[in-house]
Amino acid sequence: ISQHWDVFKYVTEVFILVPALLGLKGNLEMTLASRLSTAANIGQMDTPKELWRMITGNMALIQVQATVVGFLASIAAVIFGWIPDGHFSIDHAVLLCASSVATAFIASLVLGMIMIGVIIGSRKMGINPDNVATPIAASLGDLITLALLSGISWGLYKELESKAYVNPLVCAFFIALLPIWIIIAKKNAATREVLYSGWEPVIIAMAISSVGGLILDRTVSDPNFAGMAVFTPVINGVGGNLVAVQASRISTYLHMSGMPGESSETAPRKCPSPCSTFFSSDVNSRSARVLFLLVVPGHLVFLYTISSMQGGHTTLTLIFIVFYMTAALLQVLILLYIADWMVHWMWGRDLDPDNFSIPYLTALGDLIGTGLLALSFHVLWLIGDRDSDVGD
Question: What is the share, in percent, of the chain residues with pLDDT greater than 90?
Answer without folding.
Answer: 3
